[in-house]
Every structure is written in C-alpha cells, then in structure tokens.
Amino acid sequence: MILYHSGLTEIRSPDIHRGRKNADFGQGFYLTMDQAFARRWTLSSKDSVPVINTYRLNTGSLEIHRFSRDAAWFSYIFNNRRGHPDSISADVIIGPIANDTIFDTLGILTSGLLRDTEALRLLMVGPEYTQVVIKTQRALDQLEWLESGVLTPDAASEEAFRAEQTAYLTDLGKAFQDD
Predict the structure, then answer these.
(1) Per-residue model confidence as pLDDT tens digits over 109-145
(2) Strand 143-150, strand 29-31: pairing
(3) Which of 26, 45, 132, 135 is least buried, going by the fewest C-beta atoms within 10 A?
(4) CA distance 113 to 153
(5) What is the rounded distance in angstroms from the CA atom of residue 72 to the CA atom of residue 67?
(6) Beta-carbon count within 10 A of 75 CB
(7) Structural domain spans, the chain
C-alpha cells in the first residue's frame, strides 16, 4: 500500500506516540492513500514550505480494522475525541476522515446540544476522504519511507479546494436548517 503524509518536515522515522491521543482514530501516525488529499493538508501553510512524504506499507501480516462512514465509525471517533481509552487493538485502522470543519465546533457536538444522531447526520455532509493510521510498533516496522518532496503552490488545486469547502459549508448550512 502506497501512503502519503504531508507536513512541514521530512519524516523518515515516524513516531506513533507523538501527537494527539484524541484524534479521530486515537494516537498513531496518520497517512492517506490519496496524494491529492495529502496536498490539501498543507494548503493552509502559507508561510511555510510544505513537504509530502511517500511510504510503502507491507500489510501482509498486520491486523487491519476498516471503518465505513456509519454509526460504528461515528461512535469510535467520538469516543476518541472525548478522550476515552482506545477500544480497538488493530495494528492499522483505515477509515473516513471526520470533517475538520465539524470538529472546529466539536464543543457543540459533544456538549449535549446535539444528540449523537444529529451529529452523525452532520458528519455525513460533504466529501469522504480516507485516512490510514499506523497504531502499533509492529505496523510501524512494516512502513518503509520511500521519498519526500517539496509541495509547490498549485493554483488549480487550491481553487478546487476552496470550491469544495464553499460547497461543503453551503451543504452544512442546509443540514443545520433541516433540523
């Protein structure tokens, strides 16, 4: 499996214990199979030089848990976002990314102002992108860094991202009105 991680540095030796424990799929090293989406992770880094790292993951002997955009996925990410202990003991978790715009307002979703069914409905709005999370040292040992490269500004990609975000916010506004 070829995977991508973008950020502000080259990462030849990822650390699965670094970063937030309350991310979508708990603590781990987050990647994507979608190179175009990896580019989008750094579009907001206007004052820095973004880097995209490319990896190969040998999945043959690994335990992989796959999520779909459904109630089980929602429950898992919300438990992680609420700081509950991780409930899945897989080497790798693959599943949809919870839209960051929603989690910018996580306080609204986890405060009890919305029922879980309402929050799940809002998370279903917008495009679906997949993330791959390396959760264990065993999986990390199967991850091979291949290369890195500087991401140069791409006006077409940035425009497509802005158009997608505008459409998403319009659809999200409609979903809030439907309540």
Answers:
(1) 556 666 777 777 777 777 788 899 999 999 999 999 9
(2) unpaired
(3) 45
(4) 40
(5) 8
(6) 13
(7) 2-177
Residues facing residue 54 across a β-bridge: 4, 147
Structural tokens at position 7: 């950020």
Point out which residues pair with 133 in neighbouring strands.
30, 93
Residue type for position 128: E
Q: Which residues make Cβ contacts (< 8 Å) with residue 149, sequence separation at least 6?
A: 51, 52, 54
How far is 171 from 176, CA to CA, in rounded Å? 9
Chain length of the chain:
179
92-96 vs 29-31, strand pairing mode: unpaired
Report d(CA 168, CA 123) in Å as an integer.
11
| pLDDT tens digits, one per residue of 5-59 | 988 889 999 999 887 676 788 889 999 998 888 877 666 556 677 899 999 999 9
Distance from C-alpha of 35 to C-alpha of 32, rounded to nearest angstrom:
7
Position 31: which residue type? L
Answer yes or no: are the C-beta atoms of 2 and 55 closer than 8 Å. Answer: yes
